[in-house]
Design goal:
With 409 residues, the protein is of the alpha+beta class. It is built from 13 helices and 21 strands. It has helices spanning 12-22, 39-43, 68-73, 78-88, 106-119, 174-181, 202-205, 241-255, 272-285, 291-295, 301-310, 324-335, 391-407, and strands spanning 2-8, 28-31, 52-53, 61-62, 92-95, 98-101, 123-125, 129-134, 139-143, 149-159, 186-192, 196-197, 210-219, 222-233, 237-239, 260-265, 337-341, 343-344, 352-357, 375-377, 385-386. Helix 1 runs parallel beside helix 13 (391-407) and helix 9 packs across helix 12 (324-335). The chain starts with a strand and ends with a helix.
């Protein structure tokens, strides 16, 4: 069968691209390898779907080209996104800048997108995976679970197959091979928004402990980036939003075989000197308490023990026996706690992919390929990944709408 626009992938970007193209009167087919559309949308925001964020700055989007994402978003921005979804029936609810559907159901977002696709007569072919694209452009060959094939012809093609993150939701990286078949370069895909692994034995001792910290990532002793918020120790390493925000940079450094570690500041409200004074006062007020007892009320008891041990001090040492040098060592651990990083968790546990089709080969105004006329890209397959907070979905909506609108011209 013949269509004006064929879209590979019925995720966030693919569904919006289909709507944008169909609204311009074009015949649209979406080819989806899963049995349902929008599986990754359903998993976002713990099922509540944090679908965008009121705070939009270049720092929220990462890429080899830091300006690319904002160029795309300028053509379909936050306000246009909110209007788009309100017109579909999604009434927004905002919490600290995070925007959710008022229903707090991710299924609501998928439902209104599919209803609009149905209204516009967008066809969706489920349980089919794009096997290849051959001439004449764009003859798409798909394969079904029973190994039978189907052939569709499209005048335009949008690749919106996602990256490698969360393969259980359908992201298997197959779109990269399609992009390569048209001559595109791929920035190596790596896990992002993912927890980190550490060889340090103390992780098992403090596993489950949650605490506030300022976290700085280092590679080859040079700072990469810094975040702050609640961190979570695990038996294999460390997690929490600040850690996940840094994971993109850590992934790339580890891939280069660089030595990576994090420095945690557990008392960012105080300078090192102020902290030393605080500890000195606590010790002088409680001379017969042990060092471990003196720290009760500052940090989790498990963390107190590890801070003391990493400072090479004795937990049962009486406060009255602490020297000024001992106080300095303890304060140093609290302000500069080092945890070595050996790896990230796998793509199975990553929320997004860092890397993808090189933005240098895509027109940011249209998302058309610079290598192949009438070929477009949208969503996570492109080398753009957002931070936590609805940014990856905002990228999907914006890139999908721009790709679909321009494919319909």
């Amino acid at each position: 069968m013949e269509y004006d626009v064929i879209i590979a992938g019925a995720g966030a970007a693919g569904l919006v691209a289909a709507i944008a193209a169909a609204r311009k009167g074009k015949s649209v087919l979406i080819i989806e390898k899963n049995t349902k559309a929008g599986k990754k949308i359903l998993a976002t925001g713990n099922g509540k779907c944090n679908f965008t964020n009121l705070h939009q700055t270049p720092e929220c989007y990462r890429s080899e080209d830091s300006k690319f994402a904002m160029k795309v978003l300028s053509n379909f921005d936050l306000n246009k996104t909110l209007n788009f979804f309100e017109n579909l029936g999604i009434f927004p609810k905002e919490r600290n800048g995070y925007v959710y559907p008022f229903s707090e159901q991710a299924s609501s977002v998928v439902s209104v997108l599919l209803m609009e696709c149905e209204r516009l007569k967008v066809e969706i072919s489920y349980n089919e995976k794009v096997k290849s694209v051959i001439r004449p452009d764009f003859t798409v060959v798909t394969v079904r679970p029973d190994n039978t094939e189907a052939i569709y012809y499209g005048k335009k093609l949008i690749i919106a197959t996602g990256g490698c993150a969360s393969p259980n939701l359908g992201s298997d990286g197959s779109g990269y091979q399609l992009a390569k078949s048209f001559g595109h370069s791929i920035v190596k895909p790596l896990p992002a928004l993912v927890s980190l692994k550490s060889p340090d034995k103390f992780c098992k001792t403090v596993s489950g402990v949650r605490t506030q910290a300022k976290v700085t990532a280092y590679a080859s002793s040079k700072p990469l980036s810094q975040e702050e918020g609640e961190i979570i120790f695990t038996d294999y390493g460390i997690s929490g939003i600040p850690v996940m925000q840094l994971s993109r940079f850590v992934s790339k450094a580890l891939d280069k075989k660089e030595e990576v570690f994090l420095i945690l500041d557990f008392f960012k409200e105080y300078t090192n000197d102020e902290l030393k004074k605080l500890l000195t006062v606590r010790c002088s007020q409680n001379p017969n308490k042990t060092l471990e007892e003196m720290l009760i009320g500052l940090f989790n008891n498990k963390l107190n023990y590890i801070l003391i041990k990493e400072a090479k001090l004795d937990p049962v040492l009486k406060c009255k026996r602490l020297s000024k040098a001992d106080i300095n060592k303890l304060a140093g651990q609290i302000k500069n706690f080092k945890i070595r990083i050996s790896d990230t968790n796998s793509f199975d546990f990553a929320q997004v992919t860092a890397g993808g089709v090189s933005t240098s080969e895509i027109n940011p105004d249209t998302l058309e390929s610079k290598k192949k006329k009438n070929l477009y890209f949208a969503g996570e397959i492109v080398d753009v990944d957002g931070t936590c907070g609805g940014y990856n979905l905002q990228w999907a909506w914006s890139s999908g709408y721009i790709a679909g609108s321009n494919a319909a011209k």
